[in-house]
Structure formats: C-alpha cells, structure tokens
Amino acid sequence: MASESAEDPKVAAAVAAAEAAGPPSGESVRIDSWIWSVRLVKTRSLGAAACKGGHVRVNGERVKPSHSLRVGDEVRLRAETRERIVVVKRLIRKRVGAPVAVQCYIDNSPPPPPREAVAPAGIRDRGTGRPTKRDRREMERLRGLGGPAPFGGHTGPGGTGSSDAPGAASGGTGRRGGSAAGRETAGGRRGRGRGAGGAGRP
Description:
Elements: H1 2-7, H2 9-20, H3 31-37, H4 44-52, E1 56-58, E2 61-62, E3 74-79, E4 82-88, H5 98-101, E5 105-107, H6 133-143, E6 154-155, E7 161-162, H7 175-200
Antiparallel strand pairs: 1-2, 1-3, 3-4, 4-5, 6-7
Helix pairs in contact: 3-4
C-alpha cells in the first residue's frame, strides 16, 4: 500500500482522506452509516431500510442497522438492480467522494447486468414537451404495466374498454334513447285512448 501511494499522488490523497474520515480510536462504526459513507447507498435512511428489510448481510448473517463493523468483514448488499459484495478495508463514518470510497473496501461484486437486460425507461428527446396520453400509454406498454384493450378501447380503472360515446351502443340507455322510448310509450297510450273513444261513439 505504501508503494502504491508513493507512485500515485491521487491514491495517496484518497487514502489520507479516508483515514481522516475514520472514527476516533476505540469507537465503532454502524453498518448503515458505513454503507452510506462509502456510497453503496444514496442516503443513510436507505441504508437503515435495507438492513431492516434483510437486504444487508455481514459475514453471511442478516444484521440490524446498529450492527458494528470490523475490518475484514464481508458485506453483501442488494442495491437497486445488482448485488454488491465488498470486504471492509477501512472504517469511516463520513460520506466521501467515489475515489476515496473505493479505498475503504475490496470490491468482489459480480459485474452489473448488461444495459440490454434493463427495461427501456421511455426516454424522450429534449424539447418535445410533456407526453400526451398516447405517449404515456405507449411508455406503460413498454414497461409492461398495461396492454391494449380489446377493440381499440382504453383500459380504465375498472379494467374494461371505454368508448367515446357512453350509452351509444347500450340499447338506448342514454338521454336520447330514453326520450325516444318515452315518446313511443306515450304515443301508444294516446292512440289507444282515441281508439277506445271512437269505438264508443255512434
């Protein structure tokens, strides 16, 4: 390590910064604080949530956010779409930059998945404005959140296709259909009344 630091001034500066971010002598470092300090998670609260959810293991065992780390411990963390496997080299409790963070652990993580395996996020060109309803439906279809409804209808909250004219094909249940049915019924009654009156006249 000394020869490496002497050869590369940047590495020497990163090591010095990592040493400065370490705890006072004799004090321990919590696992949720350490994984946040070395930039394995974006916030300390996310680190604590990962521990509580069982996504963080130290030496093969699930740990609580308050678990004390030691140099040489193996930390396994499920972060976003990949698994991180690191061995603790330095204990720090202050968040540092990426060049300093890599000096605090030995990274044994598997390579990240190829970009082709990640679902498209529906990236739009700049300056195109807000997406329309059609654009949002297309992006949801690409993400696998929904599919086209039968007969070209749009899937609504109830899961059935909707049409542009409600009640148009429902057998006259709309306002116009109901009025026509009422007129026919009234006309029939008036006709029957006139017919009955005419039959009773001489």
